[in-house]
Amino acid sequence: MDDNFIQNSRKNNKNVENINKINSIINHMKLMNHNLNDIFSHEQIFSDHDSYLLFRGKISKRIVDYSQLISNCKDKILDCEYLEDDDEKRINDELEKHLNNLENYKRGLSIWWKKNEKDFHCLCMNNFLNLQKSNDNTISSDKKVDNKNLKDTKKIMIDEINRMKNVRSELLESSQKLKKQNEIFNIFEEKIRSSANLIFSLKKKADSDARYVWYSFFFFLSVCGYIIMRRLGLIRAIIIILKFLFSALFYLTKMCIGAFYFVKQNNSIETDFTRKEDLSKSLVVVMEKTEL
């Protein structure tokens, strides 16, 4: 019992929701119908083809939305499992009314298009011709501008070619001058090299001359010193002193050698004496036996 009650309550709630949705869709359809009726009731005159296209697109979009609302309303009616007689009659009347209005609007749109189709095509042709004329004018003006630009460019190129020729002649002259300067520098280099070699040889000769002068100066000093020492008797005194020193050294060496031999001789005598003592100690007394 409770399950049946719950199921019935759910069905009733669902039907109520569907009826509310159907009523909202019907209200939307009424608004759409009112909007389309206002559009078709006013006679409109257009001066360009874009206005025709916008008006036709606007009406077509509203008709499509209107038909979509009608189809949604049909779907919701089919979803309802139970409708009261009054509600069902009211909804069906509204739906039938809107279906008739939809057909009328479609017919009205086709009639309006047939009526204004020639004007639309005339406007399109006029627009195309005006656009073509403007394009021709722009092309002609562009050609004039291009011709002028080409002439200016040609003049600039001629001036540039003349300038390059002048620059080429100047470069040739400067290259000739540089070649002459290079030859002059080569001559200077050879002269500087020969001068450097000459200076080096002169320096070497001056060094050798200075060395010979110093040798001569020292030889002169030695001769002067010899003469002075000879006059003063210093040479003889030096010779005597050297002889005395050599004799003293000879005497000292002789004494050292004599002392060395004396010490060596004493050492040899002591060693001989010690050897004799050792031999005497090593002798053994042998007893002789005599036979009686």
TrEMBL record:
Keywords, comma-separated and alphabetical: Coiled coil, Endoplasmic reticulum, ER-Golgi transport, Membrane, Transmembrane, Transmembrane helix, Transport
UniProt membrane topology term: Single-pass type IV membrane protein
GO CC annotations on file: endoplasmic reticulum membrane; SNARE complex
Record-annotated Sec20 C-terminal domain positions: 148-232
GO biological processes: retrograde vesicle-mediated transport, Golgi to endoplasmic reticulum
GO molecular function ontology, one term from the record: SNAP receptor activity
Compartments reported by the entry: Endoplasmic reticulum membrane
Membrane-spanning intervals of the chain: 212-229, 241-263
The keyword Transmembrane is annotated on this UniProt entry: yes
Coiled coil: 147-181
UniProt cross-references to InterPro entries, sorted A to Z: Sec20 (IPR005606), Sec20_C (IPR056173)
Family: Belongs to the SEC20 family.
Name this polypeptide is given: Protein transport protein SEC20, putative
Species whose genome carries this gene: Plasmodium vinckei vinckei
